[in-house]
Structure formats: structure tokens, C-alpha cells
Design a protein that fits this description.
The structure is a single chain. The chain is an alpha/beta fold and about 700 residues long. It is built from 24 helices and 21 strands. An eight-stranded mixed β-barrel has the order 13-14-16-17-18-19-20-21, surrounded by five helices. The protein has a five-stranded antiparallel sheet with strand order 2-1-5-4-3, sandwiched between helices. Strand 13 and strand 14 (about 480-490) form a beta hairpin. Helix 2 (about 35-50) packs antiparallel against helix 3 (about 60-70).
Length: about 700
């Protein structure tokens, strides 16, 4: 044993072995079973070649059927066992890696051709035997009669014992003989079968070519054909068959009879239809599912002739709350009721409703005027949801958000259409829900870009696509550089440099803000250490680093900060962590505890964007902050002269309050000299803004600090 897989020839021999074992017990022959196997091997090879041929050749199957008769396999059971063997093992051993469904269809057609060839050869053999008997009648009349009887008996045994229906008719369509299997297919009444001509067996499901092929055969222009055909039984039910019709010629080659072989496929067809239905419909609601909907949508968006389509993408508002509070059984009953209501909204031609999954449904309309129809469809859906649903004695209010996409066919694919509808639906939900919105290409583009940035974030940190710019913090008293705020940027391969407003919310949503924030802190502390080493004579330069709300709740915040400071050799007093005022509104002691620990170590805590969170000023006493960063909205009125007196009073009051609490005040967004001077007069401590310098590389701060040191 080499361990290598069997080759095609080995598998072919195995198939021939199985075949010989199946038919040997019912074959009247003096051959041994191995000798019979050698006779069947070329027949197996012929079937294998026909199975894998580019085009189907029924002659191969017919030749095999004829050869079986020639090998004395004339017992009815021999044909039945041969067909069973081909059906079970031909594709398995000879199909190799080809498309299984197509190979099984080809195998079935070969079986019909084998049966046709077998029946024709057996009949010709019978006729030949009859002719031989007639020729010998003058010398051995009794022997001829006995042989004739035996020959006819063998043919009759095959004819009656066959598992498939067999019928013989003349060329005018008169049915001459039918076997028991065919009678059973049609209810068992021979009168009901033989009393009708073949052309009368029409059915509405007949393919257009069925009767064209029949006419060609009875005219002698075709030897056989194979079709799937339905018949009516006497009780009106449908009988589906695989039908093979072959032309039988006389000794001179003239068309004489037609032979029909029928396999009852009704149960198989019903099973396939059932499986198809289950595969394309939602088990809970009975609506078409995602698979069937995509088939319909693909047809709708690819149709021509000035056709349009409209799509409503519905998601129920607050459905999770119902599932969580009342249980999934109640949620399922609600979905069934919603499905029934939606189906009643889409009854016009070209309209359909489907369930995509969960509480998401879609309604599709097609035609030349969908611009108006899709709005009407959305209105009907919203109105259908108004009436509460009663479940287990409770009345449940149903609300939904709908995204609408409408347009001409041929411009977008189904996936793009559904994505646009999904984005639009979430836009309606974000606007409060219980409404519908029309698709907006610009909004779609922003959402797609946002999604692309979200998925690219994790790899961007690993690839080193982030960098930090620094904006100086200037002491308003003497104009010296006090330090700098670290501002992270993303150098995106496609979108260029992105500011933190484009990706920080996404990082917070995905949880990447924790490793990203740790990286920013590490890089900034290292940079602050380098500044101190290069400009020790300019005084200590402080570094301000922003903390997001997610970082505040991360259990490793304090330890990470301590580790970074110690590893880089920077004193805690040179670090300031900025926290937005909104993040600390209503903060409990557990949230404030890590900030207090950092403050006790000497790290300054700055309350960023002060004045935008509408917090109680009395809370300042309990927060571990040492710096207030005044939001730029309070100082914009100071950019022009004279300054807004209201703004002056507000800033003056905040500065006075901060200083009374031993808090320093930093102002953001300083853009003019007049603004800077006014803030100095009001007593603000430090400032930052474009008036001093825009955010830039760390070398810029080197230069500014050097200028301050040299005067």
C-alpha cells in the first residue's frame, strides 16, 4: 500500500465490480462473475465517458442497454439492478470533482437511455427470434412454437416487471400497450390510459419544445428525446415524470412504433418545491427571506425599458426592550403581527415584503412610477404600525424607522441599494425614530467613509499611521512658552491627514481609544523629556495630554501613567491630563478616584472645554482639578475692539472664581493680539491659539522655547 488515492481506472474497475455483483445472480449465463465483470468493464467505461462528455450523447446509454441484452442479462431484475447500480455509484466513482447536480442529471438521462436501448434490443431480439422460428417452421414447427412462446414470455416479463412505466404507441398516437407500473402511475385504470391518444396528454406546464420534439420523432426526424413533463391523472391531480420517448423502426428502417419510458418524479418534485420554499421564506412569519428578496431586488435593479424601483427598509424602534422585558415568545408574536400588517400594505403588482432577520423588514415596489409609489408605500407602512398590538393582555405600541431608496434600474447593484437603505434607516432612527427618510448620496458617502475608518483603525495603530502635533501653551504674563498640548493626527493612506474629530469618536466607540491613548501618552511624555534635555536653561516645559471618557474608566489608567513616567524619566509635575467637563458631570467617587491618585502624585488635572457642560460651579470644589481650560466660545467676542461687555463680565467672573479656588485658567482659541491682551488684563494665566502658533511638529516648540530663552 502506497497510501496514494485511487486513480480513475481503479475507481472505474470498482464500479464494474459492484455492477457485476448486482446482476450476476439474475443473469442466465455460463460465465463466472469475474468473467462477467470483464464484460461489464467496457460498458462502465462508456458510461463514465458519457457522464463527463461536453455534450450529452444518449447513444452511449442506449448502446449499454443493447449490450446488456447481448450479455444475456434479459431477466427483468437485471435491468432494474443495473439502473439502481448506475444511479447509486456512477457519479460517486466516475464523476471525479465535477458539478454534482449536473452530473446526477446527466446520470439520470443515461439511465433512461439505457432502459430505452434495453427495451428496443430486447424487442428486436424477440422479433429476430420470431423470424428465425418462422424460417425453421417447415422443419420443426413444434420447436418453433416453443421458442416463440419462450421469447415472448421473456419480453413480457421485462415489460411487466419493470419498475418504470413503459408504453408503446403507433405513429398516429394510438396507445397499444402499457405495463403495470405505468397504469399504477395513472391510478390503475387501463381504460383511462388506452382510451386516449398521445397528443391528448397535454398539460399547462408543458415546455414549449415538448410537442415540437414529439412531432419530429413521429415523422422519423428524431430517434428519441428526454423531457420533464406533467400529466393529469383521472382524479385531476398532477403526475410529474421524467419522460424518454424513443422511435422504434422495422427491419427496413421505417418508423413503426414509439416507446415511452416514464419515471414518476412527483414526490421528488414536491419535496424540492418544499425545500425551495423553506430555503427562501422566513420560518416565523412566512414572508420571503433575505435570499428570495435579493433575487427579486437583483431583477428589479437590473431591469431595462425605463423601469424604476423603490425600497423601504424598516427597523422597529425599541424592539429589544420588548424582548428583554416580555420574553422572546412575545417578541416573536409581535413580529408575526407586524409581518401580517406589512403584507397587507404591499398587494399591488410589482410589490413585495420580506423579512431580512431580527426586526428588520423590507418592502419593494417596481414599475415606471416608483417615485410616487414608494412614498405612498412608506405612508401605508407607518399607518399600519399606528394601531397597538395586543399580546398577553398588554397593548404594545409599535414604532418603526424607514430608509427609502428610489431610482432607475441599471445604475446600482442590489448590495449597494440595500446598503444605502440601511444607512438611511439608521439616519431616521438617529433623528428620533418613528419616521422615514429619503436616501442622500452625500450622507451615504459620509457613513461609508466613517465605516471604512472604523474598520481601518486597529491596523492603523499597528502600521504607525498616527503622529502627534504640538500646540504651544503661552504664559500671558511674560509671553514665555509654558508647555504644549499634544494633538494626535492620523495620516490615512487614502484620505490624507485626519484631525481627532474624525476618528477619536470612532476609537471610543470601538474601544481602540485605550491603546491609542496609551500610545499618545507615551510619545508625548518621551517628547517632553527630550525638550527638557535640550532646553534645560529655558525652564521646565509641561506636556498636556487629553483623556477620553473611556480612558477614565479603564482600570489600568493610573498604573500605565506611572509606568510611562518612570520609564521615560519625567517628573509627574511636568504632565497635565485634560478631561472634558462633560465627562465629569455627575461623576461619582469611583470615577474620580484615579484622577485623585494622579493629582496626589503631582500630575495636573485640567478641566477642558469649561463652560460647555452646564455643570454646577459648586462641583469644582470636589473635582481634583488644578486648571480650568476656558472654552473658546467665551472669548470669540474679544477678537474685535471694543470687546463684547457681556463676554468680559463672564470671563472676569470665571477667572475670579477659579483663582479663589487656587485654580489656574487657560484660554483656548486665541487668534488676535487684542484678544490676548484683554485676556491678560482679565487675569488669565496661559493661552493657546493660532495667534501664537498652529499645531506643528516638536521641532517648532524647540524653536519657540529657544527664542524665549535667548530673549
Amino acid at each position: 500500500m502506497t497510501g496514494e488515492p485511487d486513480g480513475p481506472e481503479d475507481r472505474l474497475r470498482r464500479f464494474a465490480t459492484i455492477w457485476s455483483r448486482a446482476v450476476f445472480p439474475v443473469t442466465s449465463t455460463s460465465l463466472t462473475r469475474p468473467e462477467l465483470e470483464q464484460q461489464l468493464l467496457p460498458l462502465a467505461r462508456r458510461l463514465s465517458d458519457a457522464l463527463k462528455a461536453r455534450t450529452f450523447d444518449a447513444a452511449a446509454g442506449q448502446t449499454v442497454g443493447v449490450a446488456l441484452v447481448a450479455a444475456h442479462c434479459t431477466d427483468p431484475e437485471a435491468l432494474s439492478r443495473s439502473l439502481d447500480c448506475v444511479d447509486a455509484y456512477l457519479v460517486l466513482y466516475c464523476g471525479e470533482d465535477g458539478p454534482q447536480e449536473a452530473l446526477r442529471t446527466r446520470s439520470a438521462r443515461l439511465q433512461h437511455a439505457m432502459a430505452a436501448g434495453y427495451a428496443g434490443a430486447l424487442r428486436e431480439r424477440t422479433l429476430a427470434e420470431q423470424e428465425a422460428i418462422s424460417q425453421a417452421a417447415l422443419n420443426a414447427r413444434s420447436t418453433v412454437a416453443e421458442a416463440l412462446h419462450a421469447s415472448e414470455a421473456r419480453f413480457r416479463a421485462v415489460f411487466e416487471g419493470a419498475a418504470i412505466g413503459i408504453g408503446i404507441a403507433d405513429l398516429e398516437g394510438n396507445i397499444l400497450q402499457v405495463n403495470g407500473a405505468l397504469l399504477r402511475m395513472f391510478g390503475g385504470s387501463e381504460q383511462g390510459v388506452r382510451g386516449r391518444k398521445v397528443p391528448e396528454w397535454t398539460h399547462p406546464e408543458d415546455a414549449p419544445q415538448v410537442w415540437r420534439l414529439y412531432e419530429e420523432l413521429v415523422r422519423g426526424e428524431r430517434e428519441h428525446y428526454h423531457v420533464e413533463k406533467a400529466f393529469y391523472r383521472p382524479d385531476g391531480t398532477a403526475l410529474w415524470t421524467n419522460l424518454t420517448v424513443s422511435l422504434l423502426r422495422d427491419a427496413d428502417g421505417r418508423p413503426q412504433y414509439q416507446l415511452a419510458l416514464m419515471e414518476d418524479t412527483t414526490e421528488r418534485r414536491l419535496l424540492n418545491l418544499r425545500l425551495r420554499y423553506e430555503a427562501t421564506h422566513d420560518a416565523l412569519t412566512g414572508l420571503p427571506n433575505r435570499t428570495l428578496f435579493f433575487e427579486r431586488l437583483e431583477k428589479a435593479v437590473s431591469a431595462g425599458n425605463d423601469q424604476r424601483f423603490g425600497l423601504c427598509y424598516l427597523d422597529l424602534d425599541g424592539f429589544k426592550t420588548i424582548n428583554d422585558s416580555l420574553g422572546h415568545a412575545a417578541g416573536d408574536r409581535l413580529l408575526v403581527e407586524v409581518a401580517d400588517r406589512l403584507q397587507s400594505c404591499a398587494t399591488a403588482p410589482g410589490e413585495m415584503v420580506a423579512r431580512l432577520g431580527g426586526d428588520e423588514f423590507v418592502a419593494l415596489t417596481t414599475g415606471p412610477d416608483t417615485e410616487r409609489e414608494v412614498d405612498a408605500l412608506a405612508d401605508r407602512i407607518m399607518n399600519a404600525l399606528v394601531t397597538p398590538v395586543r399580546i398577553d393582555g398588554r397593548e404594545l405600541t409599535v414604532r418603526g424607522s424607514i430608509g427609502i431608496v428610489e431610482g432607475p434600474a441599471g445604475e446600482r447593484g442590489p448590495a449597494e441599494v440595500l446598503r444605502s437603505a440601511d444607512i438611511t434607516m439608521y439616519r431616521a432612527k438617529s433623528a428620533g425614530g418613528n419616521r422615514f427618510e429619503l436616501a442622500d448620496p452625500e450622507a451615504d458617502a459620509r457613513a461609508i467613509t466613517r465605516h471604512g475608518l472604523t474598520t481601518a483603525l486597529p491596523a492603523a495603530l499597528d502600521r504607525g499611521e498616527f503622529f502627534i502635533e504640538y500646540q504651544p501653551l503661552v504664559h500671558l504674563g511674560d509671553g514665555s512658552v509654558h508647555g504644549a498640548e499634544a494633538l494626535v493626527r492620523w495620516l490615512h493612506p487614502q484620505h490624507g491627514v485626519l484631525g481627532p474629530d474624525r476618528f477619536i469618536p470612532l476609537a471610543e466607540h470601538t474601544g481602540l481609544i485605550v491603546p491609542l491613548g496609551r500610545w499618545v501618552l507615551e510619545q508625548s511624555v518621551r517628547q517632553a523629556r527630550q525638550w527638557q534635555e535640550r532646553h534645560s536653561d529655558a525652564g521646565p516645559l509641561r506636556i498636556n495630554v487629553n483623556l477620553s471618557p473611556c480612558q477614565l474608566t479603564h482600570p489600568g489608567l493610573v498604573q500605565d501613567t506611572v509606568d510611562i513616567l518612570e520609564r521615560e524619566g519625567l517628573d509627574a509635575e511636568a504632565l497635565c491630563l485634560e478631561v472634558t467637563e462633560s465627562a465629569l458631570i455627575g461623576a461619582d467617587d469611583d470615577l474620580l478616584k484615579p484622577l485623585r491618585r494622579l493629582a496626589e502624585m503631582g500630575v495636573d488635572i485640567a478641566l477642558d472645554d469649561f463652560g460647555t457642560g452646564y455643570s454646577n460651579l459648586a462641583n469644582l470644589r470636589r473635582l481634583p482639578v488644578s486648571i480650568l481650560k476656558l472654552d473658546r466660545s467665551f472669548t470669540q467676542g474679544m477678537q474685535q475692539f471694543p470687546a463684547d461687555p457681556v463676554d468680559l463680565k463672564i470671563v472676569e467672573g470665571i477667572v475670579s472664581l477659579a483663582h479663589s479656588l487656587d485654580l489656574a485658567v487657560t484660554v483656548e482659541g486665541v487668534e488676535t493680539g487684542a484678544q490676548a491682551e484683554q485676556l491678560r488684563i482679565l487675569g488669565c494665566d496661559t493661552a493657546q491659539g493660532w495667534y501664537y502658533a498652529r499645531p506643528g511638529p516638536p521641532e517648532r516648540l524647540h524653536e519657540l522655547a529657544l527664542v524665549d530663552a535667548t530673549g
